[in-house]
User: What shape does this take?
Amino acid sequence: DQQVKQNSPSLSVQEGRISILNCDYTNSMFDYFLWYKKYPAEGPTFLISISSIKDKNEDGRFTVFLNKSAKHLSLHIVPSQPGDSAVYFCAASYGFNKFYFGSGTKLNVKP
Amino acid sequence: NAGVTQTPKFQVLKTGQSMTLQCAQDMNHNSMYWYRQDPGMGLRLIYYSASEGTTDKGEVPNGYNVSRLNKREFSLRLESAAPSQTSVYFCASSERVETGNFAEAFFGQGTRLTVV
Assistant: This one.
C-alpha cells in the first residue's frame, strides 16, 4: 500500500499562472517531505523540501505547504514557465533517510 | 563532478537471464538506494544501504539482490530476469544523518531494462 499518494496524474496550466500540485501521505512518522522534478530520460532532481515542524517553505517561484493534520502537502509554482513542464514527484522520509515516493504528476505549462 | 553514475543505460534481457546493474557515486555519501519506476506507480524502493557493509529491503525486493561493494559502489543483481522486471531503474545516494535532520537524495540517470 502506497504511503505517499499523488492523485492527479497530470495537470495543464497556462504560462504565467499558478501551478498547484498535491500530495497526500498516510504515515505520521514522516518527518521530512520533498519534491523532485524529472525530465524525460533523466534522473529526478531535488527541488524543495519541508520539515514536519514547519507549514511553509519558499524558494523563489516554488513554495511547499504542509498540513500535518490533513496529512497533505502541496507545491505551488508561481508564475509557471514552459521550462517547468516535467513530472513532479512528492516524497517523504523518516528514520535512516528512506525515501518514499508518490506516483508523480505530469505538469504541462502551455506558452 | 559526476555525481551518481549508472551503467548500463539500456539493456534487453531474455527471461531467465541474469545481470548486474552498476552504480557508483563520488560524493562520499553513506546511504545508497535502488528504485524502480513504473507507469502509475512512481518510484518504489527496492533495496537500500544506510552505510557501507549494510543493506536492507525496501518496498519491492523480491527477485533482486544487492551488494554494497564499498562506500562508492552499490550494485543490483537480477538472478533470473522476468518480464515483470521490465522497468527503469534508478540508483541514488544521500548523506546519512540522524533522525530530525535532512539530506536529499541525488539520482543517477537511470537504466532502462526490458525483459522479453
User: Anything to note?
Assistant: The mean pLDDT of chain B is 92. DSSP finds no helices and eleven strands in chain B. The first strand of chain B starts at residue 4 and ends at 7.
